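Note to self: keep these together.
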Amino acid sequence: MSAPRIMIHRWGQLLLGLFFYGVAVALLIQANVGLDPWTVFAQGLEVQTGWSIGLIVVLIGAGVLLLWIPIRQKPGIGTVLNVLLIGPVIDLAMLVIETPEQLWAQWLMFAGGLALLAVATGLYIGARFGPGPRDGLMTGAHARFGWKIWKVRTGVEVTVLAIGWLLGGTVGFGTVAFALLIGPMVGVTLPLLRAPGEHPQPAPAAVPA
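Structure:
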C-alpha cells in the first residue's frame, strides 16, 4: 500500500474509532447498569452541574492533558482529537439512545456498548496518532518517575470512581463487568486493527480513554 493510501487509511481509522467510542459510551450510560470509573466521574459532575456529559468529558480530558506538562509527555494529534471529539459524539448519541425498560435489554445494550468500545479502542489506538489522555498520563508517570502503571491507574481510577459515585454517578454490576472484561477484549482488538505501515508502538497497559 502506498504512503498516501496508508495515511488516508490511518486518518479514517482514527476518526471512525473516536466516533464509535462516543457512541459506545452513550450506550453504556443509557444501559444504566454501571459505568467505567471515568464515566462515573463525568456523570457525577453532570448531576451536580447540569452541564451536558459530553461537555464534561471534554473538560476532564483537557484537564488530564494539562497534567502531561509536568511529566514531559507530548500528545499526538490523536490525543487532541480524542479530547475534542468524543464528548460531542456522546451528546449526539444520547439524543437518540434511550434506556430500555427491561433489565435483560439493559444488559444487552451494555454488552453491545462494551463490544463497540473495544473495537473503537483498537481502531483509534491502531491508527498510531497517539494514546488517549488518561493512558498517556499513566505511561508518562511511569516513564518520568518509574511508578508502576498498574499502581498509578488503580489509584487514579479508584479515586475518580469514589468521587463520581458520591456526586451521583452510576455504579453497579456493569462497573465490575467493565473492569473484568474490557482489558481482555481490547487485547483482542488491538492487534487485529493495527493500521498498515511502520511497526506500531506497543499497546498501552490498559484501556485508553
